[in-house]
Specification:
By secondary structure, the protein is of the alpha/beta class. The protein has a domain of about 220 residues: 3-Layer(aba) Sandwich (Rossmann fold). Helices cover about 45% and strands about 15% of the residues. The chain has twelve helices and twelve strands. A seven-stranded parallel β-sheet has the order 3-2-1-4-5-6-10, with helices on both faces. Strands 7-9-11 form a three-stranded mixed β-sheet. α1 packs across α7, α4 runs parallel beside α5 and α6 runs parallel beside α8. The protein is globular, with a radius of gyration of 19 Å. It starts with a strand and ends with a helix. The structure holds nicotinamide-adenine-dinucleotide (NAD) and thymidine-5'-diphospho-beta-D-xylose. The site of nicotinamide-adenine-dinucleotide has 30 residues, from α1, α4, β5 and β7.
Length: about 325
């Protein structure tokens, strides 16, 4: 079986590649990635020389390039992780989000269908459902209406609609909608690695607003196992929510990181809130549990410990990132807010 994994030089895509190569040594994995600021080839260095792995630098919007690659590889399946994924960046400049997340998804679907791909999986997010109030409100089910509140989630919601349109026309496709992931190889622009990296440098820990916003966290390996199951056993045309009932307030996550790193909470600095900041996400994952038997294996507490340990042990990985494009992003980010 040959699987094209797009966005595999990013956080979740790379973890998925490691999971698949380890679980299915007879599969061929072809990673297609544009290597934007979020993609990092050094993340893949441990698998680069594997005989059943190939990396190709390519934009999912480049139809000719994708057609060429698919005619060489004849993939059986495609898993699409490629995306602009950071909400704060979508507030600064929405254009790349619609290009990659919407048009890129359409291009991939179209080429996949024409190339006889037997299964397409779209990696989506709980953010497409919008926000819940801090207290009350039903956790998101697959039937919840889509209410995206920023350009990132709007572009992901539109992509999901296109995937369902193709599935409705008979093309075998599935969607997973997961909550916030934590684990190795996440870009330091996101909450958990940002706080770890800043705390290690005794820099302020910028918490947006009051820090009461709630996210539903899942360890990245659990997410990868869920996608693996859906790819093999999920029903075409179906959406599967993925979550571990790990609702945490941002402020509590940041305090836990301070504790794990033995840094003072006085580093915490409350800064201006994110525009349109979603208050709370919570996922009802009963469908994937009942239909496919998926259950998370890593608790949030263990996940945070493993993640903190990983960043302590891989300073060269994130130091390279924070000394590059990230510097100009931070200037734009804090200059504009
Ligand atoms: P990421 O930003 O770490 O990685 C994205 C990858 O996609 C990068 O390697 C980048 O180079 C690549 N890419 C971007 N534009 C591309 C293009 N036009 N063509 C080819 N490659 C391109 O993202 P992530 O956090 O790993 O998220 C992966 C997917 O999972 C995304 O679709 C995201 O919406 C979804 N998701 C993420 C989370 C989370 O907590 N991080 C939660 C739920 C869903
Ligand atoms: O410096 C910060 N301070 C802060 O308080 C940052 C970067 C974030 N936050 C808050 C905003 C959110 O409430 O922490 C929470 C998490 O923020 P992010 O890590 O930016 O994630 P979020 O906006 O929740 O989106 C993430 O989860 C869903 C991913 O980036 C998306 O790709 C995924 O779809």
């Amino acid at each position: 079986m040959t699987i094209v994994v797009t966005g595999g030089a990013g956080f979740i895509g790379s973890n998925f590649i490691f999971h698949m190569l380890q679980t299915y040594p007879d599969y061929r994995i072809v990673c297609l990635d544009k290597l934007t600021y979020a993609g990092n080839l050094s993340t893949l260095k441990g698998v680069m020389d594997a005989p059943n792995f190939r990396f190709v630098r390519l934009d999912i919007c480049d139809r000719e390039g994708v057609v060429r690659l698919f005619s060489e590889e004849h993939p059986d399946a495609v898993v699409n992780f490629a995306a602009e994924s950071h909400v704060d960046r979508s507030l600064l400049d929405p254009a790349p989000f619609f290009r990659t997340n919407v048009e890129g998804t359409r291009t991939l679907l179209d080429v996949s269908r024409r190339s006889g791909v037997k299964r397409y999986h779209q990696v989506s997010t709980d953010e497409v459902y919008g926000a819940l109030p801090l207290v009350g409100g039903q956790a998101f089910t697959e039937q919840s209406a889509l209410h995206p509140n920023n350009a990132y989630s709007e572009s992901k919601a539109r992509a999901d609609e296109i995937v369902l349109q193709y599935a409705g026309q008979g093309f075998p496709a599935t969607i997973s909608r997961c909550g916030n992931n934590l684990g190795p190889y996440q870009h330091p622009e996101k909450l958990i690695p940002l706080m770890i990296v800043n705390a290690l440098a005794d820099q302020p820990l910028p918490v947006y607003g009051t820090g009461e916003n709630v996210r539903d966290w899942l360890y990245v390996e659990d997410h990868c196992r869920a996608i693996d199951l859906i790819l093999h056993e999920g029903r075409s045309g179906e959406v599967y929510n993925v979550g571990g009932h790990n609702e945490m307030r941002n402020i509590d996550v940041v305090k836990l990181i301070c504790k794990e790193l033995d840094r003072p909470e006085s580093l915490i600095t409350f800064v201006a809130d994110r525009k349109g900041h979603d208050m709370r996400y919570a996922i009802d994952a009963a469908k994937i549990r009942n239909e496919l038997g998926w259950l998370p294996e890593t608790t949030f507490r263990d996940g945070i410990r493993r993640t903190v340990r990983w960043y302590l042990d891989h300073r060269e990985w994130w130091q390279e990132i924070v000394s590059g494009e990230y510097q100009s992003y931070c200037r734009r980010m804090y200059g504009d807010r």
